[in-house]
């Protein structure tokens, strides 16, 4: 768990530095940083998604994930909860909405990808913290840039990181037998598709309810396994 705590503290430290930088930034520059963050998210999403080896797995997982997300109104529940949680730091309703958006965006960017799963499993099974330490450095830098662009809501992703990565580390022995390299790749590719959607939202090109796509990540292992057993696709 030590590496997870280091990762959490790295996000907090990066966010604090980002807040200091944000105070001196004019609104025009903040807007430009947001656009840059959106473009970077699009690039990350495209680079990861095109590595998909079996596009049918992604399609079926996303369709099932959206059906689950929409039925549960995941986007509405998460946004309302986040706004209530963060409203004490805001000056008004609009600011609360921006804090919620920063929280959700940073959680996804920092916790969707193969590095999170593999690094946490390595830490839990082999006490190998190298990948999580590398991720901590990346999250520290990302925390600075995202907080400078989006505000204090990014700091909330530190709590999510602690719970999500910590959970994988503690349950590594039970999770590992069911997480092959193939499953990790499929989850990472689907996660990158969601990050692409995030980037498009940040650029204000779309208004995709990204949170309603998240159940797709939980569906991927089952779809990928079923396709492997049935010999469908790659």
UniProtKB/TrEMBL annotation:
Residues that span the membrane, as ranges: 6-25, 32-50, 56-78, 99-118, 130-152, 182-203, 210-230
InterPro entries (alphabetical): DUF554
One protein family per Pfam: DUF554
Top-level taxonomic group: Bacteria
UniProt key word Transmembrane helix: yes
UniProt KW keywords: Membrane, Transmembrane, Transmembrane helix
PANTHER family for this protein: INNER MEMBRANE PROTEIN, INNER MEMBRANE PROTEIN-RELATED
Protein name: DUF554 domain-containing protein
Source species: Anaerovibrio slackiae
């Amino acid at each position: 768990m030590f590496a997870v705590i280091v990762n959490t503290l790295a996000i907090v430290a990066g966010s604090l530095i980002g807040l200091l930088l944000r105070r001196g930034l004019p609104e025009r520059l903040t807007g430009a940083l947001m656009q840059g963050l959106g473009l970077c998210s699009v690039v990350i999403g495209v680079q990861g998604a095109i590595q998909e080896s079996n596009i049918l797995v992604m399609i079926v997982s996303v369709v099932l994930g959206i059906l689950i997300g929409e039925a549960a109104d995941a986007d509405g529940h998460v946004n309302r909860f986040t706004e209530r949680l963060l409203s004490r730091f805001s000056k008004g309703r609009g600011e609360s909405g921006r804090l919620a958006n920063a929280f959700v965006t940073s959680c996804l960017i920092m916790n969707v990808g193969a590095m999170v799963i593999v690094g946490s499993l390595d830490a839990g099974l082999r006490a190998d913290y190298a990948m999580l330490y590398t991720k901590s450095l990346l999250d520290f830098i990302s925390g600075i840039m995202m907080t400078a662009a989006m505000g204090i809501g990014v700091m909330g992703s530190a709590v999510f990181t602690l719970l999500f990565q910590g959970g994988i580390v503690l349950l590594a022995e039970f999770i590992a037998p069911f997480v092959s390299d193939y499953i990790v790749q499929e989850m990472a590719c689907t996660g990158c598709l969601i990050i692409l959607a995030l980037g498009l939202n940040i650029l204000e090109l779309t208004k995709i309810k990204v949170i309603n796509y998240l159940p797709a990540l939980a569906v991927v292992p089952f779809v990928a396994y079923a396709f492997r057993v049935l010999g469908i696709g790659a």
